[in-house]
Specification:
Blueprint (H helix, E strand, L loop, with lengths): L2 H37 L2 H6 L4 E6 L6 E2 L5 E13 L10 H8 L3 H14 L5 E8 H10 L6 E11 L5 H4 L2 E3 L2 H6 L9 E3 L2 H5 L1 H4 L4 E7 L5 E4 L15 E3 L3 H10 L5 E7 L4 E8 L12 H10 L8 H4 L8 H11 L14 E4 L2 E4 L9 H6 L3 H13 L6 H14 L21 H8 L23 H12 L3 E2 L5 E4 L7 H4 L2 E2 L4 H17 L3 H4 L7 E7 L7 E8 L6 E7 L5 H18 L5 H9 L16
Parallel strand pairs: 2-10
Antiparallel strand pairs: 1-8, 2-3, 3-4, 3-5, 6-7, 8-9, 10-16, 11-12, 11-20, 13-14, 15-17, 18-19, 19-20
């Protein structure tokens, strides 16, 4: 048998398999090519990607309302110009572009250089916050500049020139925030920088959407890609409903015009902030739009420091207003009672030093000591609490006093829903140990604390919060600005909680009796008393080593079922009953009655100018 005879059919079979394999493969390629080029349009569209533009659809921030449903902060539309450097026409007529978008030529060149450094093919913010009326003129010339397009967004509009420190402001996200946000923020995004805008950023900001648009060769948008099938709608931010009364806020700022100081008013039943005034202030509209940077620098340089948030950050010696606290703590410790009397004689002499009093009182009882604001009385009370507290060593007695003060949020933060709150100054036992040595100091060493002086500093927020506690006889909510968030009306849990000071109600009754007499027939009678409204208050004069003393007045009203608790500080104004008390009194009347008939007193405050020589409040005006 010839061996080659059997091999020929096998070779033939392999050849045929190879031929058919090639034919099948070619057929597959031909069918795929037909599909790609004729039947499936998406590959054609992918080839035209340079004609499809991805545009961010920014969410409007939530609106802010006051306690009566009045809009305080809303949004208005503006335009941002974006640039993709790699798509710019070459050569680029920068002079014409600068003239079109109203930027200095050197500034435009700098921004284009930065955009190119960032990425030649990714969009970068070129010019921000262009008003609608200005953009109408710019839009006409944009078709000559491929690679530049507009994105619509909104900026804040403040309907009242007030409450700047509470509301805060919005600005561009910093590079540090963008890096930490894991893609949540991009260059050019806006974010809350201060105030409520910062605290509630996660609620207010909403969620960004995206749109895909066809663009023709003249850089004009001609339609939506696939009729918007791949677009996502922006989700608006949640609204904030505040406890703030914007009309009362505006009124308080008017009363405090041309003065330095603070006003904080709280609804004692809820802890909601009714007003929070820091003066000199500024119109929040100054920090909106592309003039924000210039205005911010101007405010920073203002010697009156209008950006400084006095209610949360200024610390003053509490002065005589601390006497009401001393009276409460002394009673709760069983060291004094309503009929406890101490001599005055015009001063309290200790270790060669005399704590003077404004009067040479006879021996007063507890109620009279508050009504007439007797300094020696509270030196004796402080001595009883520190040196004679049930056999405790002075250091341990002081620790008991210190702990009680902290229960009133003196020396610690009130945890308001605003950033940058300071805790004030309340020296600890360890602080005095470092200065004098452990167990080598006693009440006489630190006697100035007894009348709210010395190493002692509290914020106006802490003052008002203390009055809210007095109004409720020991119960309180943590002070806060936001009443509810969004349509669900939710509130942060910690602001729903009711706290209780461990002091018996009967001790509050004694102090309230005294505080009522302060207004009815004591140091605040001249300007603090209101016809048919029972006000409980306490005047104070906070010593100031740099000039005239600060006037302080704290109060709540009405005594039964209190609706408002207030702290007023007027810097360099002297006695609290003369300048601080009338501000609080008029505000109470405005809030409870809707207005006041004491027009002469109102006019006196509106015209008063209590500022250092040569300073004015021009920075508070609108541009």
């Amino acid at each position: 048998m010839n061996p080659s005879y059997n091999k020929e059919p096998a070779i033939e079979n392999r050849t045929m398999v190879l031929v058919w394999t090639v034919v099948v493969v070619l057929a597959i390629f031909l069918i795929r090519l037909l599909t790609v080029q004729i039947l499936d349009h998406k590959y054609h569209e992918l080839a035209q990607q340079n004609a499809i533009r991805r545009v961010n659809a920014y969410a409007p921030r939530g609106i802010i309302f006051d306690r009566n449903g009045k809009k305080i902060v809303v949004n208005r539309p503006i335009y941002d110009l974006m640039v993709v450097p790699g798509e710019l026409p070459q050569p680029l007529d920068t002079a014409r572009l600068a003239d079109l978008i109203r930027l200095p030529l050197d500034e435009l060149v700098l921004r284009l250089r930065k955009a190119t450094t960032y990425s030649r093919f990714r969009p970068t913010l070129l010019h921000s916050q262009i008003r609608v009326e200005d953009f109408a003129q710019i839009q006409e010339g944009l078709h000559d500049f491929s690679g530049i397009y507009a994105e619509t967004r909104t900026v804040r509009t403040y309907l009242y020139p007030a409450a700047a420190h509470a509301l805060g402001y919005v600005g561009e996200a910093s590079p540090e925030l963008i890096e930490k946000s894991n893609g949540e923020y991009n260059a050019g995004d806006y974010v809350g920088i201060s105030g409520l805008e910062k605290t509630y950023e996660n609620y207010l900001k909403g969620k960004r959407g995206v749109q895909y648009r066809y663009v023709d060769v003249h850089n004009r948008e001609v339609g939506r890609y696939k009729d918007g099938a791949f677009d996502s709608l922006p989700i608006p931010g949640e609204d904030l409903h505040l406890g703030l009364d914007i009309e009362l806020q505006v009124y308080a700022e008017q009363l405090m015009a041309n003065k330095r100081g603070s006003v904080v008013a709280i609804d004692p039943s809820t802890g909601e902030i009714l007003t929070m005034v820091s003066t000199p202030s500024y119109d929040p509209a100054l920090l909106v739009g592309n003039v924000r940077g210039k205005n911010y620098r101007r405010l920073q340089k203002d010697p009156l420091k209008p950006l400084f948030n006095r209610p949360l950050q200024a610390m003053y010696p509490p002065g005589s207003i601390v006497k009401s606290l001393q009276a409460l703590i002394g009673q709760e410790l069983g060291l004094i009672g309503p009929e406890t009397r101490f001599p005055c004689g015009g001063g309290y002499a200790i270790a060669g030093h005399v704590v003077k009093c404004t009067h040479k009182h006879v021996a007063l009882n507890l109620e009279e000591s508050i009504q007439l604001s007797c300094n020696p009385y509270y030196c004796y009370v402080f001595k009883a609490m520190v040196d004679q507290n049930r056999g405790l060593k002075p250091r341990d007695g002081y620790k008991v006093w210190f702990d009680y003060m902290q229960k009133f949020n003196i020396g610690r933060k009130c945890e308001i829903d605003l950033p940058n709150e300071r805790k004030g100054i309340l020296p600890s036992p360890e602080y005095y140990d470092k200065i004098y040595g452990k167990n080598r100091w006693k009440s006489s060493t630190i006697i100035s604390l007894s009348i709210g002086q010395g190493e002692f500093g509290i914020t106006p927020l802490q003052m008002a919060h203390t009055m809210a506690i007095f109004a409720n006889k020991g119960k309180y909510h943590a002070p806060h600005l936001v009443r509810s968030i969004g349509v669900t009306g939710q509130k942060k849990m910690k602001y729903r909680q009711i706290y209780q000071i461990p002091v018996q109600a009967r001790h509050f009754n004694v102090v309230q009796d005294a505080m009522q007499k302060v207004v009815d027939m004591g140091t605040a009678t001249a300007y603090g008393k209101i016809d048919s409204i029972v006000v409980c208050g306490k005047t104070g004069t906070a010593q100031n080593p740099h000039g005239e003393d600060h006037a302080v007045f704290v109060c709540f009203a009405p005594r039964d079922n209190p609706k408002i608790a207030i702290a007023v500080v007027v810097e360099n104004a002297g006695f609290g009953g003369v300048w601080a008390a009338p501000v609080a009194s008029l505000m109470i009347e405005k809030y409870l009655r809707g207005g006041t008939r004491r027009t002469e007193l109102e006019e006196r405050l509106l015209k008063a100018r209590i500022l250092p020589a040569g300073m004015d409040t021009a920075s508070t005006k609108r541009l």
